[in-house]
Amino acid sequence: MTTPALICAGSEPPSQLLTSSQTERMSPLACNALALSSEARKRHFQEVGPALLKLKKSSRELPDGYEFEFSADRSTYQLLTEWAFEERLCCPFLEIALRFDREGGPIWLRLTGRPGTKEFIKLELASAIQ
Q1: Coil, helix or strand for 58?
Q2: What is the pTM of this model?
Q3: Closest CA to 88 of 108, 65, 113, 64
Q4: What does the alpha-carbon distance between residue 41 and residue 87 come to, in Å, rounded to a whole number?
Q5: 33: Cβ–Cβ under 8 A, 6 or more apart, which residues?
Q6: Is residue 5 part of a domain?
Q7: Does the structure show a pLDDT above 60 at 11?
Q8: Distance between CA 84 and CA 78 in Å, rounded?
Q9: The pLDDT value given to residue 1
Q10: Proportion of the chain above pLDDT 70, given as a percent
Q11: H or E, element range at 80
Q12: I need a labelling partner for 57 at 20 to 30 A (CA). Which of 43, 76, 109, 127 fits?
């Protein structure tokens, strides 16, 4: 669902990347498509992402990101989990969650994160947010 490029939607000064409870640096708000092998990158960006865009039923804005609605069938779930697994490699700053609504409701893909993440998602997934 993101483009296969190294894109920085914003940056934070290093002092703001760490909290007192963290001992390691947080990743930048950027997509590192090179984190995937060439085969995985091609499948992620040219097959799985576009397939999910066609299956998306709706989207909604959240205070810190976006949520996307999908039908709760096995094949859609399999595509979503494949996409999420690879996406966390190229965009490790994203918080990615899948939720099944009760009573046979839809699956929701939630993408959130620290300040700046929502703007990154809005820029990178503009066609999915519509």
Answers
A1: strand
A2: 0.78
A3: 113
A4: 10
A5: 2, 3, 4, 5, 6, 41, 45, 90
A6: no
A7: no
A8: 10
A9: 54
A10: 81
A11: helix 74-90
A12: 43
Is 121:95 a contact under the CB 8 Å cutoff?
no
Range of the domain at 56: 27-129
pLDDT in tens, 23-42: 457 888 888 888 999 999 99
Q: Please, which pLDDT band fits residue 12 given cuts at 50, 70 and 90?
A: very low
Indicate the pairing of strand 65-70 with strand 107-112. antiparallel
Residue 118 lies inside a defined structural domain of this protein: yes
Average pLDDT over residues 54-63: 96
Q: How many domains does the chain have?
A: 1
> Could you give the dihedral angle defined by the CA atoms of residues 24, 15, 2 and 76, in that order, rounded to the nearest 10 degrees?
50
Neighbours of 2 (CB within 10 A): 21
| Two tokens, residue 29 | 């708000």
Confidence grade of residue 4 (pLDDT, cut at 50, 70, 90): very low
On the 0-12 / 13-18 / 19+ scale of CB atoms within 10 A, 104 is exposed
CA–CA gap between residue 75 and residue 48 (Å, rounded): 11
6 within domain boundaries: no
